[in-house]
Specification:
heterodimer; A: mainly alpha; MetI-like fold; 2 domains; about 80% helix; globular; B: mainly alpha; two-stranded antiparallel sheet; about 70% helix; BP-dep_ABC_trans_perm (chain A); Maltose/maltodextrin transport system permease protein MalG (chain A); membrane (chain A)
């Protein structure tokens, strides 16, 4: 028994050490957001707190970060809503109805393959397509490409949630004379809400994180927060404080989600990874 | 962490074998059902066809042209397979990128799997205090935008004011140029990726471990002498599906790497941290060689598709073999 409690202590220690390794760099950058540049450079740990980085980032005329955050919210919000609606309906039909095999396997096969291929191989083509329609730099281009990019994950997630609906319920509704659209609205939709929330959370996070699409298809007006951060890092003189402040503001949705919906994220990740 | 969701792989099959009703009014209802099927699937199909199937053909087409930009207009000259000939003869950077991507994938994924699996074993066997808080911390790198990870580590590994060199300085070790030295830049990028994705492997592995039936484990424990044997002959075989799936998932994701590299090193110094995705991006968007970039994208697409199909084929064959062995 003694060795067991020793093992417990060692494993607790190891795992918390790893947690510390995750946290320290993040926390270090976050604290930089509240420091004056001179304190960042000299590495002062307990420096006086300042909001000047946030003020410069959000309210100064040279900075476009406030509008970048708004762009991110518009693009990710719209894309997520459209994705969830489309994925929930399609997942229901694919799981519950008798879809012709060739339709089923071409949709699923392509979704699976497309999900594995690097986004970077597609952005070039998207750029050409939207350029020929004079649509590069528009919200339309950003939102539609976000949708197609995250549709496979949402579809797989929603299908795994739809598959866990009790078949007897659906059968009973069919016996009572419900057509499939009625089954969807009356049975599946109310029951699968938890799954929809989990999928929404995950899709929104991924969409908010996207960099490759936004980098190539946005312009200075529709630039999203991750693209804005990358421009700060590439300026000749890195503005450490503002970059740290921008980083902090960009991860607010992620942190909120961990605090509120940890269970949902884990569930979504597990269902998504299995595909 | 629900273990059941790990086994929902059958989601693709119709879950309820609902018999067709075949009573009066059936034709009208059949039409209605048909309408719903089309209505619910069509948007997905449209999005896929227009924005992911068509682009593949678009890329193949463009790769046969030499595209010149002048004043916002582009002119296309048909040059046949010239772009491909160039890619396979004179190209250097793309192939250096492919080499780095392979090294990156193998090293990073191996480290993540070993670390993630050992930590999951430790937590499963001995337990750890503060599970919820731990999970929260471990989720952090997964949900934070990759560009933020890049930005954090760029600041941490910064040569002059970075945390890493500050820490080494405490022991009197001179500052290291983590991202600027061609000999260690790739190792630094791999390190960041391991930091980034080990928690993900850990979470999947822990879920897999907790799904193992405790009674089966107890029974197996009778036959083994050491805990190493238990891991080697009992736990690993039972965990194999989870391990293989996580491994595939991570390998595929590591071929997608772009954001972190873009911010950390932009492929440099030289070609030290060049990756395939970055080569395509640079040729397409910095050098405006659209035709050539398309050829690179096409080769990458088809190479990966082939690898995925072969990989899956091997996996399916292995699974069938295992099942046959079980039956005997």
């Amino acid at each position: 028994m003694k060795s067991r409690s020793l093992g417990r202590a060692v494993s607790t220690l190891t795992i918390w050490l790893y947690a510390a390794i995750i946290l320290v760099p993040m926390v270090w950058v976050m604290t930089n957001a509240f420091k004056y540049k001179i304190d960042i450079i000299t590495g002062t740990v307990f420096a006086p707190i300042t909001w000047s980085n946030f003020e410069a980032l959000l309210f100064s005329r040279q900075s476009n970060f406030a509008s970048a955050l708004a762009n991110s919210a518009i693009v990710s919000g719209t894309a997520t809503i459209v994705i969830i609606i489309m994925a929930t309906m399609a997942a229901f039909t694919m799981t519950v109805m008798r879809v012709p095999n060739w339709v089923r396997w071409s949709i699923l096969g392509w979704a699976l393959l497309f999900n594995m291929l690097p986004t970077l191989t597609f952005v070039g083509s998207w750029y050409l397509m939207f350029a020929s329609a004079d649509l590069t730099g528009t919200y339309f281009a950003l939102i539609t490409t976000q949708i197609v990019n995250l549709l496979p994950i949402a579809l797989f997630l929603m299908m795994s949630f739809m598959a866990s609906l009790p078949p007897e319920l659906i059968q009973a509704a069919r016996m009572d004379g419900c057509a499939y659209d009625q089954v969807f609205w009356k049975i599946a939709f109310p029951l699968v809400r938890g799954g929809m929330i989990a999928t929404t959370a995950l899709v929104f996070i991924f969409s908010w994180s996207d960099f490759a699409i936004a980098l190539t298809l946005s312009n200075s007006d529709t630039m999203t927060a991750p693209v804005a951060i990358s421009t700060y890092a590439q300026e000749f003189e890195i503005r450490y404080g503002e970059m740290a402040a921008a980083t902090l503001l960009t991860i607010v949705p992620a942190i909120t989600l961990i605090l509120v919906g940890q269970k949902f994220i884990v569930r979504g990740l597990l269902a998504g990874a299995v595909k | 962490m629900s273990a059941a969701s790990l086994h929902s792989r059958t989601a693709g099959k119709p879950s309820a074998g609902i018999p067709p009703t075949g009573r009066g009014g059936a034709p009208r209802k059949a039409r209605r059902n048909r309408r719903w099927m089309i209505f619910s699937l069509l948007p997905v199909v449209l999005f896929f066809v227009v924005l992911s199937v068509f682009p593949v053909f678009n890329l193949i087409g463009t790769s046969l042209y030499d595209v010149r930009w002048s004043g916002g207009d582009s002119t296309y000259h048909f040059i046949g397979l010239e772009n491909y000939r160039q890619l396979f003869s004179t190209e250097v950077i793309y192939w250096a990128g492919l080499r780095n991507t392979l090294i990156f994938a193998v090293c990073a994924v191996t480290a993540q799997m070993i670390l993630g699996f050992s930590m999951a074993l430790a937590v499963k066997r001995a337990g750890a205090m503060g599970r919820t808080l731990l999970t929260g911390i471990f989720l952090l790198p997964i949900v934070v935008p990759p560009i933020v990870i890049g930005s954090v580590w760029r600041l941490v590994l910064g040569r002059e004011f970075g945390l890493a060199n500050g820490f080494l300085g405490l022991f009197g070790i001179p500052p290291v140029d983590w991202l600027g030295n061609p000999d260690i830049a790739l190792a630094s990028v791999i390190f960041v990726d391991v930091w980034h994705w080990t928690p993900f492997v850990f979470i999947l592995m822990l879920a897999g471990l907790e799904a193992i039936d405790e009674e089966v484990l107890e029974a197996a424990r009778m036959d083994v002498r050491s805990s190493w044997q238990e891991i080697r002959h009992v736990i690993v075989p039972m965990m194999l599906p989870t391990i293989v799936i996580t491994l595939m998932f991570r390998i595929i994701l590591s071929f997608k790497v772009f954001d972190e590299v873009y911010l950390l090193t932009s492929g440099g110094p030289g070609t030290a941290t060049e990756v395939v995705n970055f080569s395509i991006y640079r040729v397409f968007f910095n050098q405006d060689r659209v035709g050539y970039g398309s050829a690179m994208a096409v080769i990458t697409l088809f190479g990966m598709t082939l690898a995925i199909i072969v990989g899956r084929g091997l996996l399916v064959r292995k699974r069938k073999n295992d099942e046959r062995k079980l039956e005997q």
